[in-house]
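Before the break, one more example. Copy the sequence into your notebook; we will annotate it together after we see the structure.
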Amino acid sequence: MSVPSVLIIWDYDTAVGQVNASYPYNFHEETLLTEIENVDRILALSTTFNLRMTFACVGFAAEQGVFPYHVPEQLRRIRAASHEIASHSWRHEWFPFLEREQVRRSLRRGKQVLEQCLDEPGAVKGFVPPFSRPMTWYRKGAISLGDRTLNPLRAGGNIGSLCAELRDAGYSWCRVSFRSLGQRLRHSFARPLIDRTIERCNGIACIPYHYNGFDSGGLELLEFAVKSKNSVVIVGHPSGLSRPKAESVSYLVPFLEKVAELQALGRIQARSVRTIYR
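Here is what the structure looks like once it is written out:
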């Protein structure tokens, strides 16, 4: 398409995801409520600036249960605002450690409960791996010791194997993050791989992970998208709005203002991932 896209993907861990992602000595109950409130802030901003985004949600949050661990009404409001709902697994598992059957169950149940919550069969087409893992992709020569497992028989430990399971579970796209040996030699670890484009693996569109945050790095990527006519993928975490880092709301608001300005000029378009394939 002639107008490049900015794909803003939110990793909405929700309460169970935060519990699974936190060391016991870092966990605070109030952060669960803050994350939910921040999602509402994002929704309000998206309405103000007329922007479409993608929210990757943990399926556990779509189940019926006690607030704040279950927020089905909020998930329905996200979808009603014309944003895409993707799966962030069922309960934010560390995928490189999972056996094949565990991977299958998480992928299928996460998708199923989200679609049941939305009352929209087939609505969930995308998957965002928790912790952005695995980063190992044997076919690409990408080996990540950070995955903490290099067992080729683990379906959740290799992007290629994970994509095959995603295809069989009815997904269409997956966000991926990896660095091959060649990319490690050519790029510093801090530099986003902005030349990475969407590619296909086992029938799944692999969406690149370009940048996390909305500070000067995110703004530079917007300029890159406009000049090069290439789409960019910006990642954020709702909980990050409350932290004084690159995802802070103090950076998010000017970033969205810039996206809205460029969109009004017809130079960029904020889209959900699924819109590209519709």
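The chain has nine helices and ten strands. The chain has a mean pLDDT of 93. Try to locate both features in your own notes.
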